[in-house]
Design goal:
The chain is 47% helix and 15% strand. It is of the alpha/beta class. Helix 1 links the parallel strand 1 and strand 2.
Amino acid sequence: MNFDGQVAIVTGAASGIGRACALELARGGASVVVVDLAGEDLMTEAARLVRDAGARVASFHANVADYGKAERIVAETRVRLGGVNILVNAAGTTEDAPLWKMTETQWERVLNVNLKGTFNYIRAVAPAFRAQGAGKIVNVASIEALRGRFGISNYAASKAGVIALTRAAAADLGRDGINVNAVAPGFIRTPMIERLPAEVVDEAARETVFGRIGEPEEVASVVAFLCSEAARHITGEVIRVDGGQML
């Protein structure tokens, strides 16, 4: 994919799917803005990898749930890198518990990062994208938004919200030449998944038709396609990247 001269903001870019997306876009020629709440070591490593891919990079340590910070990051990106053309919302978190044990804090924290954070950055880039009559937005949802599974009501609700937000934003912004799409990964080898018990990951692998969980790069390649001109007539779409886990 050719992203020469374009600037991409990627949230959750310090690790996992977000990092893979940042690197895929960087290899295509985009300048990349790394946004994450991770520690300094992960942030530094992600920025170095983007730079090693031949791209300009800017890095912001931020909680995506902070509405004002999102607007400031977009404004500073435009000043430092000359504009913004692509937004990938990959930041996400989990705090699993059965409904009867889930606290208000657990519910709010997951919804604030996964759903409100996605809204914050779409809202922040929308004026610039509308003014230039173009822009690509890709949100990272999950197959958990499409099925029921024990102990993840906050996560499932947040990702279902991301899918609904994707479609509504596509309707709002399409007349201004802006594409808004989502990917819905299954189990992908990320730090979030690696914290789960081995038997849970093994069961997820058996659910796929390929007998394995996915790799972050396999999601990133789909995200890059949706950010490219090859996908210029696709909007409001949700593409599962799950190795057939939902079949």
